[in-house]
């Protein structure tokens, strides 16, 4: 199957192009050591990863605020590890984590190559639930900002994936039609089903080869997109 009739490609950023887990681990190694936290970084990260995913789901669903996300995902780790820490320290770590995260610039294998391949053929765009300043810094520091014509985030759209309005906002900003567009992302609920429900085609970036609904278009490596686009 090929999708060469498409004109515009919309990418998610974290966990799709930008290697969130690797960059996040580096950020935690730095801030835990800097603040004298007596927890080994790998242990902290092992607990933080699923907790962070759960908090992001709550944030997507509108159940918590940005501040509750940033505080709660750290507080829960310290609670599980029974490590006493003040709210002041948690807030400091939260601020330093957000500031440090975009300073690490690891991309997924094949990210630059696939962007170079796609750029002459399609208009490229970003749709992300991440926060505006942080996502802009990630794109610029990783030197991939110039590949994208528009960057839609949940703050400027006023809603989060999988809400159809964020896809509508992105399509309008890009000046394209849904039938000419396709979304690529790592989250079935937010990226793939969100786009499909809005009337766009979508590709699931299934890095970990997780179970996916039958018939869902997917790739396990970014360079596999060359076979489809």
Automatic annotation (TrEMBL):
Pfam families noted in UniProt: Hydrolase
Claim: Transmembrane is one of the keywords in the record: no
Keyword flag Cell membrane: no
Sorted UniProt keywords: Hydrolase
GO molecular function: 5'-nucleotidase activity
Domain of life: Bacteria
EC number: 3.1.3.5
PANTHER family for this protein: PTHR47478, PYRIMIDINE 5'-NUCLEOTIDASE YJJG
Descriptive protein name: YjjG family noncanonical pyrimidine nucleotidase
């Amino acid at each position: 199957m090929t999708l060469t009739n498409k004109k515009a490609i919309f990418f998610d950023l974290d966990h799709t192009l930008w290697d969130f887990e690797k960059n996040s681990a580096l950020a935690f190694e730095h801030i835990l050591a800097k603040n004298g936290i007596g927890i080994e970084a790998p242990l902290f990260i092992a607990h933080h990863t699923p907790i962070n995913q759960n908090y992001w789901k709550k944030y997507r669903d509108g159940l918590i605020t940005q501040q509750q996300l940033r505080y709660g995902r750290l507080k829960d780790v310290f609670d599980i590890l029974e490590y006493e820490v003040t709210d002041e320290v948690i807030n400091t770590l939260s601020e330093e984590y957000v500031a440090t995260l975009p300073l690490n610039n690891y991309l997924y294998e094949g990210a630059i190559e696939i962007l170079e391949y796609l750029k002459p053929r399609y208009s490229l765009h970003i749709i992300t639930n991440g926060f505006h300043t942080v996502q802009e810094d990630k794109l610029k520091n990783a030197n991939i900002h110039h590949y994208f014509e528009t960057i839609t985030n949940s703050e400027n759209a006023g809603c989060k994936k999988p809400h159809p309005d964020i896809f509508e906002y992105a399509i309008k900003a890009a000046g394209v039609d849904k039938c000419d567009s396709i979304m690529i992302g790592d989250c079935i609920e937010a990226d793939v089903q969100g786009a499909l429900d809005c009337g766009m085609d979508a590709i699931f970036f299934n890095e970990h080869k997780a179970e996916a609904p039958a018939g869902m278009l997917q790739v396990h490596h970014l360079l596999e997109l060359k076979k489809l686009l």
